[in-house]
Specification:
Mannitol-specific EII, Chain A, alpha/beta, 145 residues, 42% helix, globular, five-stranded mixed β-sheet
Amino acid sequence: MSNIFTEETIQITDKQLGWKEAIRTCAQPLLNNGSITDRYVESMIEVAEEMGPFFDFGKNVAVPHSRPENGVNKKGVSILKVENQVDLLDLKDHPISIFIVLAAEDNSSHLNILSSLSEILIDDEKVDALKSARTKEEILNIFNN
């Protein structure tokens, strides 16, 4: 995972965001570096509205994503840590503190990235460290170790 995360793809905010705004904010670094298009961002929101909160990973972590053909130009992952939890789809039983937007150019890389993320996100200590991280460097270190 270390080659996919940079300080430019990690954000921390104390703003109160709605769930759509959180997804858009999280995706912005990938828009900026050309990994995804605006269509991909809107597709993630549409998928959530149609299919429900399926990308709620548990432990207050959401991994929004869509199909590669919906606007992925190249592989990328971005992270948004919100200080004020966001209710995914405005559902109180889906509070999110960490958004991780996943963009993969094909199904194989999609599964590889999800698998790598899962290894980190099943580790309660690492998830707790993500939630308590105060800087981009701290978040980067969690994914690099």
